[in-house]
Amino acid sequence: MTELPKLALGAWAWGDSANYFGNDYDESHFKDVFKTSIENGLNLWDTAYAYGSGASETILGDLMKDTPREDLLISTKFTPMMADPSNDQAVNEMFEGSLQRLRTNYVDYYWIHNDNDVELWTPKIIPLVQSGQVKHVGVSNHDLHEIKRVVEILDDAGIKLSAVQNHYSLLDRTSENAGILDYCKENNIKFFSYMVLEQGALTGKYDEDHPFPKGSQRAIKYNDKLQELSGLNHILAEIGAKHNVSAAQVAMAWAVAKGTFPIVGVTKVEQVKDAANVVNLKLNSDEIKALEDTAGKSGISTIREWEKDMRN
Question: Domain for residue 13, yes or no?
């Protein structure tokens, strides 16, 4: 398998027909974004059928068609909430659709996107791994008890759980506090951290005078928290200035320093370049403590409607 880069790039906002993120970029917009990612050695792309009901996968598949498949690492997901539990072929059908949209005959990481009925869905991933169509299996939005149960089910088939993908940021450390990060480290399971930038809220780009696009889900979730976030964004920028980097890069570097593998959503070339440069940014223990203390004092919860507090 191609060696993992230092972080993954996310295509959640690609094909955003539902105005979740508040952009209306078409496929042509992402050509230079993808090209820049390859030029900078960021070759792991994370997507899902759930992102735009396949639109994200379609765009990514179109853009990657001229890049040797062995030079890419592709991560996509089976989403139980979008499947009929009475359909015994639900996993296979969603997976085959993903392969067609991505123009590939295998994926490097395939995830069970949420924890809806671990006992039902986990065994259905096993044949895809055994066939070689899935190189690594992961789970997303699972708590520690559920992760351990998935490990048991896969172990019975001689398959290792390779990765866990949960929301993890300065504002949501419940996976850390619940012991999931430690469990993953002890068992050689890669922890993919998504929403490390809180969909842009930890970039310094948005404040009360510059809110998220009106009507978008980001606006609904974050616009009323921008004042409370100002202190954290200030210290992100302050630390960034000392290292000659952006506030967003500091938030990414924090996630790397915590031993996680960040998935950074990108829609612009400069965002890819920022992500690529994070590998050279090392935060010291005082900086990490200052960030965590400030985030804790904000009292903000960013757990989303599809997520849960992993400590419960």
Answer: yes
Contact yes or no for 128/154 (Cβ under 8 A): no
* Band of residue 126 on the pLDDT scale cut at 50, 70, 90: very high
Residue 109 is predicted with a pLDDT of 98
The Cα–Cα gap between 284 and 215 comes to: 39
Closest CA to 195 of 74, 304, 108, 299: 304
The answer to whether 41 touches 72, Cβ cutoff 8 Å, is no
Question: What is the CA angle 7-75-126, rounded to 5?
Answer: 130
* 256-284 tens-digit pLDDT: 999 999 999 999 999 999 999 998 899 99
* DSSP H or E run through 229: helix 226-243
Q: What is the pTM of this model?
A: 0.96
* Residue 308 within a domain: no
Element (H, E) at 73: strand 73-78
- What is the DSSP code string of 177-189? HTTHHHHHHHTT-
Distance, in Å, from the CA atom of 110 to the CA atom of 139, rounded to the nearest integer, reads 8
Burial of 219 (0-12, 13-18, 19+ CB in 10 A): middle
Domain count, the chain: 1
Bridge partner residues of 263 (DSSP): 8, 194
DSSP per-residue string spanning 133-195: SEEEEEEES--HHHHHHHHHHHHHTT--EEEEEEE-BTTB-HHHHTTHHHHHHHTT-EEEEE-
The pair of structure tokens assigned to 193 is 């951290």
Is 303 within a domain? no
CB 138 within 8 Å of CB 111: yes
Q: Has residue 312 been placed in a domain?
A: no
Looking up residue 280, the CATH number of its domain turns out to be 3.20.20.100
Residue-number span of the structural domain to which 159 is assigned: 8-298
First to last CA, the chain: 36
